[in-house]
C-alpha cells in the first residue's frame, strides 16, 4: 500500500475495460460503444451524455452509491483514468488502478458503484468522453438527489491525482 494514499496498485474487481474497435472506410470511422446483446442487464445504460475536457484538466474524483458509469474514451485526446476500490466487501478493496485511454487506445471503461474514479486529459487538444450510466441523473424527471459523492476538494483525501 502507498503511504500517501492507503491504496495499493493493481486491477480492480468488477471494473471492465474493453477495447473499442474503430471500423475505417473512405468516409472516416465508426466505433460501437455498447450493445445490448453484450451488456449485463444491471449495467444497461439509462441515459447517455458527452463531455468535453480541456487539456490538463481533471474530472473527479467521485463515486456513486448505486450508479454504474460506462465511459468511452475515443479521442481526439488521451486520458489518464484513475480508479480506487473503496468497496469494503470487494476482494480488491484498497487497490488503485490507472488506465490510459483515448485516441491512442480507444477503450470503454465500466465503473461499478463504490469505485472512486477520475480522469484527466493528458493530451494537447480538447477531449471528448461519452458516458452511458445505468441510472438517470437526479432520477426520473430530475426530482431525486444526485447519486454522487465528491472527493475533489476534501482535505487529506486518499484519492490523489498525479
TrEMBL record:
It catalyses: dTDP-4-dehydro-6-deoxy-alpha-D-glucose = dTDP-4-dehydro-beta-L-rhamnose. One of its GO terms (cellular component) is cytosol. SUPFAM superfamilies: RmlC-like cupins. One of its GO terms (molecular function) is dTDP-4-dehydrorhamnose 3,5-epimerase activity. GO terms for biological process: dTDP-rhamnose biosynthetic process; polysaccharide biosynthetic process. The record marks 137 as: Participates in a stacking interaction with the thymidine ring of dTDP-4-oxo-6-deoxyglucose. InterPro entries: RmlC-like, RmlC-like_jellyroll, RmlC_Cupin_sf. It is an enzyme of class 5 (isomerase). Gene3D superfamilies: Jelly Rolls. Catalyzes the epimerization of the C3' and C5'positions of dTDP-6-deoxy-D-xylo-4-hexulose, forming dTDP-6-deoxy-L-lyxo-4-hexulose. This is dTDP-4-dehydrorhamnose 3,5-epimerase.
Amino acid at each position: 500500500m502507498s503511504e500517501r494514499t492507503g491504496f495499493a496498485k493493481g486491477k480492480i474487481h468488477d471494473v471492465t475495460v474493453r477495447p473499442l474497435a474503430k471500423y475505417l472506410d473512405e468516409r472516416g470511422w465508426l466505433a460501437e460503444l455498447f450493445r445490448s446483446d453484450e451488456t449485463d442487464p444491471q449495467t444497461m445504460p439509462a441515459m447517455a451524455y458527452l463531455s468535453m475536457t480541456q487539456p490538463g484538466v481533471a474530472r473527479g474524483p467521485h463515486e456513486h452509491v448505486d450508479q454504474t458509469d460506462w465511459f468511452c474514451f475515443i479521442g481526439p485526446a488521451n486520458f489518464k483514468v484513475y480508479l480506487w476500490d473503496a468497496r469494503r466487501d470487494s476482494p480488491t478493496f484498497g487497490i488503485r488502478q490507472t488506465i490510459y485511454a483515448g485516441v491512442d487506445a480507444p477503450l470503454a471503461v465500466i465503473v461499478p458503484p463504490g469505485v472512486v474514479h477520475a480522469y484527466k486529459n493528458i493530451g494537447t487538444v480538447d477531449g471528448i468522453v461519452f458516458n452511458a450510466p445505468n441510472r438517470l441523473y437526479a432520477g426520473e424527471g430530475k426530482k431525486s438527489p444526485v447519486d454522487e459523492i465528491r472527493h475533489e476538494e476534501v482535505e487529506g483525501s486518499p484519492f490523489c491525482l498525479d
